[in-house]
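Summary of Year 1 activities. Much of the first year was spent building the evaluation harness for sequence design. The harness presents a backbone, in tokenized form, and records the residue chosen at every position. We chose the following record to illustrate the format because it has been used consistently in internal testing since the harness was completed.
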């Protein structure tokens, strides 16, 4: 028997899909919650964005849903009705035009070195759409990587990224979602919350530098076009407004402009960015003004053997990893949403609300809020560095532990019925992917190399510089009782698509306001593809638990068994 709300949800879904047209207004009816939650356009009252690090789509899903299943690794067997994805097949695996062929990485290769993922070099790897310069442009060698640079062509399958493949089997995934722009972590993080990397009003070089450059480039991190006093982030500067940044070792930046936190605050909605290691080990001293110190750390790569590739001296990879990474914390770049001294919430009841913490929290504060009935409407979760998936300081198995522990706990909360978890990544790390993203925002500067020096298409007059987009294809999954089962979405989306979903679900409006700025200056939220087709609001939510083992990634209590809804 179909639920009574079938037709209203179907009409809502249609309206949401229509709203992704750039000029369309949002017309779906508001749907109030039954427990004091704010009205939403869908049954989703809580969005949890799990924002992980440095993965391309092919790096995790190249052969999905077919795994090699060697002895000694968790076995993955796909459901018979599993749809195919745009992965590596045929010539792409055996006769690839890159100078090295794609190679499977098993659980013993879970630790790898970090690849080159600079704004310019990622474009060089694409080589105008030929996608044949990955080894030369972004491949690296070192501990955990082969000496010939071929590790950049490596991919995992369901015997290592087992949990993620199992989530794809039970819920919904995309095989056509892209990094909004080329470049490393901060670029992706800013696009996640603002759809915009332009707006740098203050910047410093690593040893102090000039506080407000006008016609300079802070090397590798911020691009200032000649004559423009406002710059664009293309690398990983740290937040200027953060006690735990390191001004002597890395450039710092402050941005002006609007982010999603401003939109949520304007509607009095609860929200927060929750990051591992945010709570200082030495608090800010209000008397001496001594800055807070973020000294929490974990031993990296627990349960991962030392790599054999590129490690002839058997260098120990199980070293102390600082939990907090300042340039992974995007709200800290904006004065209106920063918590410079890492102050704690004034009370449990204020988590998600505006107080001295200003919506910036330690990851543990999320679970405090959830366990006391104060789960925010919108929560961004950032793992401590050893579990964020970033090569070098993390790995797929450590990441899997974080993802599984988080999702297992969320499924046991009373809010799960109204929750959507979105798993996505900040950048590709340079890992090979065989799909060229559409160029939706051209750029022609000295740091652009998409189709040759200075060439990423022809930008509009007065377009903001150094925002060549879209970048590399990346994984995106929706885990929710309302997600379609074993579904692969082919809609073109990007990191700002989650921003667009939040805007539409709570009627926040666009980052730039009701009127679109000139071409090349707008936030990407206006053109972001919708993730709505990954949901099924035409039936009742599937509340049957899907609990995985954090070590193996395998389902506890059986195999894929859950097409029915309850």
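For this record, the design step produced the sequence shown next.
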């Amino acid at each position: 028997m179909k639920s009574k709300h079938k037709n209203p949800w179907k009409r809502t879904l249609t309206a949401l899909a229509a709203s992704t047209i750039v000029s369309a207004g949002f017309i779906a009816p508001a749907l109030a919650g039954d427990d004091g939650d704010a009205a939403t356009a869908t049954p989703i009252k809580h969005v949890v964005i799990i924002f992980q690090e440095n993965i391309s789509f092919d790096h995790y899903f190249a052969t999905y849903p077919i795994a090699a299943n060697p002895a000694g690794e968790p076995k993955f067997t796909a459901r018979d009705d599993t749809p195919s994805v745009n992965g590596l097949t045929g010539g792409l695996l055996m006769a690839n035009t890159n100078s090295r062929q794609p190679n499977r990485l098993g659980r013993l290769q879970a630790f790898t070195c970090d690849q080159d993922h600079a704004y310019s070099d990622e474009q060089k790897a694409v080589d105008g759409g030929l996608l044949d310069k990955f080894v030369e442009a972004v491949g690296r060698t070192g501990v955990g990587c082969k000496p010939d640079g071929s590790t950049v062509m490596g991919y995992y399958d369901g015997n290592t990224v087992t949990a993620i493949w199992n989530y794809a089997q039970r819920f919904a995934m995309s095989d056509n979602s892209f990094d909004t722009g080329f470049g490393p972590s901060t670029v992706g993080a800013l696009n996640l919350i603002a759809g915009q990397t332009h707006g740098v009003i203050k910047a410093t070089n690593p040893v102090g530098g000039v506080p407000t450059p006008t016609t300079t480039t802070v090397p590798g991190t911020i691009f200032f076009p000649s004559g423009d006093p406002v710059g664009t982030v293309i690398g990983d500067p740290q937040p200027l407004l953060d006690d735990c940044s390191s001004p002597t070792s890395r450039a710092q930046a402050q941005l002006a402009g609007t982010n999603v936190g401003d939109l949520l605050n304007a509607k009095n909605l609860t929200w927060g960015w929750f990051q591992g290691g945010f709570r200082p080990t030495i608090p800010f001293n209000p008397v001496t003004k001594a800055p807070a110190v973020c000294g929490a750390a974990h031993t990296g790569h627990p349960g991962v053997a030392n790599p054999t590739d590129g490690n002839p001296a058997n260098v120990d990879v199980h070293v102390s990893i600082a939990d907090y990474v300042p340039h992974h914390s995007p709200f800290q770049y904006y004065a209106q949403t920063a918590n410079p001294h890492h102050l704690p919430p004034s009370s449990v009841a204020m988590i998600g609300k505006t107080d001295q913490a200003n919506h910036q929290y330690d990851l543990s504060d999320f679970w405090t809020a959830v366990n006391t009935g104060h789960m925010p409407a919108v929560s961004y979760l950032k793992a401590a560095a050893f579990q964020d998936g970033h090569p070098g300081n993390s790995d797929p198995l450590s990441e899997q532990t974080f993802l599984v522990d988080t999702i297992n706990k969320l499924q046991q909360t009373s809010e799960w019925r109204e929750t959507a978890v979105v798993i996505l990544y900040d950048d590709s790390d340079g890992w090979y992917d065989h799909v060229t993203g559409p160029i939706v925002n051209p750029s022609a500067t000295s740091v652009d190399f998409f189709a040759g020096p200075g060439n990423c298409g022809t930008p509009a007059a007065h377009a903001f510089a150094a925002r060549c987009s879209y970048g590399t294809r990346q994984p995106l999954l929706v885990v929710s009782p309302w997600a379609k089962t074993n579904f692969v979405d082919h809609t073109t989306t990007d990191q700002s698509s989650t921003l667009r979903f939040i805007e539409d679900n709570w009627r926040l409006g666009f980052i730039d306001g009701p009127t679109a700025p000139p071409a090349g200056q707008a936030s990407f939220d206006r053109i972001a593809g919708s993730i709505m087709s990954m949901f099924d609001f035409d039936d009742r939510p599937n509340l049957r638990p899907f609990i995985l083992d954090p070590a193996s990634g395998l389902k506890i209590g059986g195999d894929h068994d859950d097409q029915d809804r309850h």
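Residues 396-411 form the longest helix (16 residues). Quantitative recovery figures across the full test set are reported in Table 2.
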